[in-house]
User: Which sequence fits this backbone?
């Protein structure tokens, strides 16, 4: 990718444009899940060390976002929901995005290693590599399994947080990984159902494009069932507690209800109400992870003050 991939309508960038390169909304989820993973780890970590760990994980997540925007500037330019991003809109050049992404990648990995341990730093480095090279450069443009496999990149933060505290992995962070990993496909496939023209125009082989919407609806249901099983299973570990168990039960009943409604609809029904069910499922999925990890956080706080 080069600066030729951006539009000619370039102008001086502001701070907000460079910050947007880091995908702050995605970074919010990265920070929150990494923080919960770190907090649930069965060790006492100095608060300043913990703050540094979360900061450098966040920077690494932002670096991934900048590198993704550099590489995907051409397809971002033809998709409605991404056309106003800093690079395709011309507010930031591709070379600037690449330089920022590389610099922040190296900084975040080295600083996380110095602040905590090199196992966590190595996993952060692998996460950045996986998102940029494996997902963005390879899977996204070559296979309808792009979201399925590529979802691993967004699932690593709680594991990195846990490793930053302990230097090792355990069942709890692996189940947190599975929760995010299995959530990603139905979340994005629901979006693809009512934004299919974007992926058609950009030539991205999303499942809706390669296998059709009927198949996509079935896939959403199957993945939602598997997701619900793993979400509830997390409540049976030391990380879970009464708040999480109640939250997971309610959230996953709602998830399965929404997935079933999507699976039983056809395109005529969806077009008649402007994809209201699919849009509602997508909006719910935006809250799904935050509420699960929020419940884990509440249980951890309650345990910390000795309430159970």
Assistant:
């Amino acid at each position: 990718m080069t600066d030729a991939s951006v539009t000619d309508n370039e102008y001086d960038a502001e701070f907000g444009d460079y910050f947007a390169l880091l995908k702050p909304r995605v970074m919010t989820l990265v920070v929150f899940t990494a923080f919960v993973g770190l907090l649930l780890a069965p060790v006492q970590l100095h608060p300043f060390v913990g703050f540094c760990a979360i900061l450098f994980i966040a920077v690494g997540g932002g670096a991934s976002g900048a590198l993704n925007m550099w590489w995907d500037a051409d397809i971002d330019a033809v998709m409605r929901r991404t056309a106003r991003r800093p690079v395709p809109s011309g507010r930031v050049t591709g070379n600037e995005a690449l330089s920022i992404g590389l610099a922040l990648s190296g900084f975040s990995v080295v600083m996380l290693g110095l602040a905590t341990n090199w196992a966590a730093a190595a996993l952060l480095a692998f996460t950045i590599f996986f998102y940029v090279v494996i997902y963005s450069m390879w899977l996204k443009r070559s296979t309808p399994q792009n979201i399925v496999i590529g979802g691993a990149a967004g699932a690593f933060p709680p594991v990195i947080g846990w490793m930053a505290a302990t230097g090792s992995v355990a069942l709890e962070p692996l189940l947190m990984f599975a929760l995010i990993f299995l959530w990603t496909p139905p979340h994005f496939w629901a979006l693809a159902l009512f934004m299919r023209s974007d992926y058609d125009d950009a030539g991205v082989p999303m499942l809706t494009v390669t296998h059709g919407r009927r198949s996509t609806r079935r896939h959403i249901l199957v993945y939602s069932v598997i997701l619900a099983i793993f979400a509830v299973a997390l409540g049976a570990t030391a990380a879970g507690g009464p708040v999480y168990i109640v939250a997971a039960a309610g959230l996953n009943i709602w998830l399965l209800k929404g997935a079933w409604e999507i699976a039983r609809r056809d395109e005529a029904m969806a077009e008649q109400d402007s994809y209201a069910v699919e849009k509602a499922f997508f909006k719910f999925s935006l809250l799904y992870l935050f509420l699960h990890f929020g419940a884990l956080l509440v249980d951890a706080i309650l345990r910390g003050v000795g309430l159970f």
In short: Residues 170-308 form one domain. Residues 276-304 form the longest helix (29 residues). Residues 1-10 have pLDDT under 50 and may be disordered.
